[in-house]
Amino acid sequence: MARVARPYHHGDLRNALLAEAAKVVETDGVAALTLRELARRLGVSHAAPTNHFPDKDALLAELAAQGFDELARDLEAGAHGRSPEVRLRELGRAYVRFALRRPGHYRVMFGRGFAKESRTRLAEAGDRAFSTLQQAVTAAMPPTRARSAQRVREACFLACSVVHGAAMLLLDGPLAPHLSISPDDEAAVSELIDQATASVSTAIREGR
């Protein structure tokens, strides 16, 4: 009797596609990522990924949103029961640790634009992470009229610039070797972020 072909069954193809996409981006970059290549790596038909993501952009948008969701959880975990200064330090650590732990997600989150239909999901995920940072920055500001919306935005921009710059330099930049800092050296990375966020906290507190 002739064999009846059975379709390959994958228990959770959607999440497997996202996990594999993060690996490809981390090792080879976004340009190397295709739905066909993901299907080959996961052992499913070329058409199978389109049951979950119509195209590469949709998959990358969900990968970015997934990253923002995880980042938000990490930031929220470091934002309770501490003084404003310590809270900012812990948020800085959490941010950079996330970038080093999930470099594939992180590069997609901040490295490209997305189609209009993906922006609502991304905005919701990003707003949650930013809200935690904004609350911590506002608490660190002096309780005066300096807490205007503009001053809060400026302070948030300063804080984001410091932690994002540190994360990118540790991931991709030439600075880390010159400072004898390895992304794998958690103690050295923590000390670097502590120093950077302490400077940010001082600037915010003094209303610079």
TrEMBL record:
Keywords: DNA-binding, Transcription, Transcription regulation. SUPFAM superfamilies: Homeodomain-like, Tetracyclin repressor-like, C-terminal domain. This is TetR/AcrR family transcriptional regulator. Residues 11-71 form the HTH tetR-type domain. It comes from the Bacteria. Residues 34-53 bind DNA. It comes from Pendulispora brunnea. Pfam families: TetR_C_33, TetR_N. The keyword Transcription regulation applies.
